[in-house]
Specification:
By secondary structure, the protein is of the alpha/beta class. Helix content is about 50%, strand content about 5%.
């Protein structure tokens, strides 16, 4: 379905943007570590998964603008050279979705001068704390009982459900999307710890709401697997060598993004709201003007 600019300037047009970007029945499933062709990474030494959300084509053939929205993993380990690179992006603010326990573990963000740091915690449903306790136990039996037999993947699906069911989470996602839509706002970066789940859901929503086809938004989401693969493998090997885990492959479902996790959130959207439009309007608090503003600011 092609959406004209005239349609986008009406309230009905704002609803049409969301309706047109709802996942089509029988849509192809894109799995595995494959990076989309339009991916634009920002190479840094102290962070792995930093990229410009721009470059994707929308349903009506336009492109998401570069240089306005950036997604990332945590920024607590950035080098001075990294700060110079980020400084060149002209960021106005960096939104941190991590909970206090994550910040205490990995450190507060290092940011270029002039970038406003915004703490906007989104719950991980207890994942970070539980994972540290299980790994810290050094007990292979306990680790297998907690993470094996599909339990790690099931936990991740539950985390994604809270993106939809938890009121505080919905408020945080909605506030972030409204800020991306704000006229005259400078470039914005948002991130969590790995830049793949809370950050991935925000990015998937933003791309869909401006008219990027479902398969491209999902490719952007799944690209974290390819980007993070080498780093995550080193983490697992480090756990093995340190004697913390006999079988570090147990944490692979926690390190990855999977279509089944995204589907868990979308199932909650359908169950609780009937569809994406009502989720973003009633659930996230975006009115039609904000939806139109998001499209006008990010696409062209």
């Amino acid at each position: 379905m092609s959406l004209s600019r005239r349609a986008l300037l009406s309230t009905a047009g704002a609803a049409a943007v969301v309706a047109a970007t709802a996942p089509p029945a029988g849509a192809a499933r894109h799995r595995g570590p494959r990076a989309p062709r339009s991916l634009r990474q920002i190479p840094l030494q102290g962070a792995v998964n930093v990229r410009d959300l721009g470059g994707y084509r929308t349903l009506d053939g336009e492109r998401v603008r570069h240089g306005l929205v950036y997604r990332a993993d945590h920024l607590g380990k950035l080098t001075d050279a990294d700060l110079t690179t980020l400084g060149g992006l002209g960021l106005s603010r960096a939104i941190d979705f991590r909970i206090p326990l994550e910040v205490a573990s990995d450190g507060a963000d290092r940011l270029p001068a002039g970038v406003t740091a915004v703490s906007r915690p989104i719950t991980d449903n207890g994942l970070f704390g539980q994972l540290h306790a299980v790994i810290g136990s050094r007990d292979p039996v306990r680790q297998e009982e907690a993470l094996g037999g599909g339990r790690a993947a099931a936990f991740m699906a539950d985390v994604y459900r809270t993106f939809v069911t938890d009121a505080a989470n919905r408020n945080a996602f909605g506030q972030t999307l409204r800020e991306l839509a704000a006229r005259g706002a400078g470039p914005v970066l948002y991130h969590c710890t790995s830049g793949k789940d809370r950050t991935g859901w925000t990015s998937w929503l933003a791309l869909r709401l401006v008219g990027v086809p479902e398969h491209l938004a999902t490719e952007d989401y799944l690209a974290s697997n390819a980007i993070r693969a080498a780093h995550d493998a080193r983490v697992r090997e480090g756990l093995r060598q340190a004697g913390l885990m006999r079988n570090p492959e147990l944490i692979v479902p926690l390190q990855e993004v999977r279509r089944e996790y995204l589907d868990a959130a979308l199932s909650e959207v359908r169950a609780g709201y009937g569809g994406l439009y009502r989720y973003v309007t009633a659930g996230l608090g975006l009115d039609p003007r904000a939806l139109v503003g998001l499209r006008e600011r990010l696409v062209g």
